[in-house]
Specification:
heterodimer, A: about 400 residues, mainly beta, Jelly Rolls, 6-stranded antiparallel beta sheet, 5-stranded antiparallel beta sheet, 19 strands, rod-shaped, B: about 55 residues, Complement Module, domain 1
């Protein structure tokens, strides 16, 4: 019997480690005996252990408490060392410890002591039993115990303990006989294995091999076949555009009609018609120039220099004429030589677009006005720009 | 142009009024005019009126 006879004593239990899956379970029971009131109150408890933290399995009581049963079942998947201790105020006293495999139970029964049962419920024994020792001497029979408490005569019919039939407390059991010496185990223990040697040093790397020779160039692939000819596009139905001025890039040739060389300065007279062609400017038609083949006159550029300063606005006119002096194409009627007195000047007349044939003799006809101030010592040239006749 | 003849032309200019100018008429051997050139302004007495000389 484990007696907790003060209010500071209790039973606690713990294990060697926190459970892997489930903490061991405990179930306990006890009797509380109040000697002053001559009462006995049965009690019980159950719960789970908490790893290495002591858990009270039978709490302390103000009255005397006799532990009747303590059972701890290892519900975990690994074995545990289980420790059951008496706690007196702050002092622990080991009562029992054992190793419980998963499914095993340690049981304390009043009068039967601590026993361990395996998973199958069989009493667990440890190792080979040694030789049984001699049985101890039988203990002395104990004295008769005190008479039991009388049962309560309950008015409500609950039968108390029958005094007469209650046997006295059993006498003390005699001392257990001395256990015999355990037999020696055979020499089955193997010696310790030797320590492994240190690893050797890493060897030096070998030389790299020589690179192989470069392979021969592969043969070029065959050329693909020529693709099929595409489909011709549709012809557009566009309106013909207007004939614009001939672009400069279309001009194929230039002819210079030399009015006079530098040494042959020329002072035109008033209201006179001059013809420029193959010779000096003449006042009567003379031989003209001819083209090798028909060309289109695109533009005429007049380049001149002079000494006299005629008044502005006194314009003269230029025409393309035949050898008889008949006008074929008006080049301009507003040639004004008053712009600038010194240095070569030029003025261009474009967009003429006159088709000239290869049989006519042509000349440039210049008709002068009646100047208030005559230009003198003039040098004048006509550059004719041609393009092919469309 | 060895053969020439100087003549006096009279112009009634709309802004400058009456102007007298001496013009040289060049002729061929047949006496036909080839070309003519302005020579100078002249006064009523046929005397030249100087003009600005050519710069080139």
């Amino acid at each position: 019997m484990i007696r907790l006879d003060t209010a500071n004593k209790s039973l606690v239990a713990y294990t060697d480690a926190t459970a892997t899956t489930a903490e061991p379970q405990f179930v306990t029971s006890w009797d509380d005996i109040d000697t002053s009131l001559v009462t006995m109150t049965p009690g019980s408890g159950d719960g789970l252990l908490n790893g290495t933290t002591p858990v009270t399995v039978i709490p302390a009581s103000a009255t005397a408490r006799n532990a009747k049963y303590v059972g701890i079942y290892n519900a975990d998947t690994v074995q545990h060392n289980v420790y059951i201790l008496l706690l007196d105020t702050a002092t622990y006293r080991m009562l029992f410890s054992c190793v419980l495999q998963p499914g095993e139970t340690v049981v304390y029964n009043d009068g039967a002591g601590w026993k361990v049962f395996n998973e199958a419920g069989a009493l667990k024994t440890v190792g080979l039993s040694g030789f049984s020792g001699q049985s101890g001497f039988s203990g002395f029979s104990g004295n008769d115990g005190q008479s039991g408490f009388s049962g309560f005569s309950g008015n409500d019919g609950q039968s108390g303990f029958s005094g007469d039939s209650t046997s006295g407390f059993s006498g003390f059991s005699g001392n257990d006989g001395q256990s015999g010496l355990s037999g020696f185990s055979g020499n089955s223990t193997s010696g310790f294995s030797g320590f492994s040697g240190n690893d050797g040093s890493t060897g030096t790397s070998g030389f790299s091999g020589f690179s192989g020779n470069t392979g021969a160039t592969g043969t070029s692939g065959f050329s693909g076949n020529t693709g099929a000819t595409g489909t011709s596009g549709f012809s557009g139905i566009g309106t013909s555009g207007f004939s614009g001025a001939a672009p400069a890039s279309a001009v194929r040739s230039i002819m210079r009609i030399n009015g006079y060389d530098k040494e042959l300065n020329f002072s035109p007279a008033d209201s006179t018609t001059y013809f420029f062609a193959m010779d000096q400017p003449r006042t009567v038609p003379y031989f003209g120039f001819k083209l090798a083949y028909a060309m289109r006159l695109a533009a005429v550029l007049v380049q001149y220099d002079k000494a006299g300063n005629e008044a502005s606005g006194e314009s003269s006119s230029l025409h393309l004429v035949n050898s008889g002096g008949t006008a074929l194409k008006t080049i301009t009627t507003a040639l004004d030589l008053s712009t600038g007195a010194v240095g070569y000047k030029s003025v261009a007349y474009t967009g003429l677009n006159y088709d000239m044939d290869a049989s006519t003799q042509y000349a440039i006809r210049w008709t002068t006005p009646a100047w208030a101030t005559n230009p003198t010592f003039i040098q004048i040239n006509f550059f004719m720009y041609f393009e092919p006749v469309p | 142009m060895e053969n020439y003849e100087d003549i006096i032309t009279v112009i009634d200019h709309p802004t400058a009024g009456v102007l007298r100018k001496r013009v040289r008429v060049f002729k061929n051997a047949k006496g036909e005019e080839i070309t003519r050139e302005f020579m100078s302004r002249v006064d009523e007495n046929g005397e030249d009126i100087p003009q600005t000389p050519p710069e080139n």
